[in-house]
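User: I'll paste a sequence; please echo it back and then give the predicted structure.

Assistant: Echoing your sequence first, then the prediction.
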Amino acid sequence: MGSHATKRNLLTDVEDQAAKHGMGAVLEGRFLREQLDAEGVGLSLQRIKPGQRVPFGHRHRRQEELYVVVRGGGRAKVEDEVLELGQWDVLRVAAAAWRGFEAGPDGLDVIAFGAPAGGDRSEAETEMGWWAD
């Protein structure tokens, strides 16, 4: 397409990283930054299966994120606050805040936008079992 625009399909052009890392029973995670030649923003599709909770929480050093619920619903935990999420809700999370997601009975499909885009894995920190009851 040239240097002014890049087009990719989130389902067919992007590998499911959750399945690749053994979490396919819980969620699907497709991360799209390099494939779009994006320099300042990251994008991902996260599809959490019905009744499942993402097994880890995460936070960033610099990257603020917006999460748009495009299908289903569920809950997000941000630090100590638990928020109900429904279709077309938008949740902004500050970079340094711990966050995790849980799907309701219909699953939870979220498109996440983050800026500035992290160029390496050290920008994000994860903790398995962060959201435990």
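The two ends are 48 Å apart (CA to CA). The longest strand covers residues 99-115.
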